[in-house]
Amino acid sequence: MTARSAGARAGDLCHVCGADVTQGWWDSVDSDEARCVACGAPSTATLTAPRVGPAVAPHAPRGRVDRRIARILERAAWKDVVALHDVRVPGTQMVLHDVAVARSGVYVVDARSARGLVEERLATDGPRRERRLLVGGRDCSHWAAPTLRKATALQAVLDPRTPVRGVLCVLDAEWRLAPRPIVCGQVVVVWPRALARLVSRPGPLTPAAVRRTAERLAAVSGRR
Question: What's the pTM?
Answer without folding.
Answer: 0.71
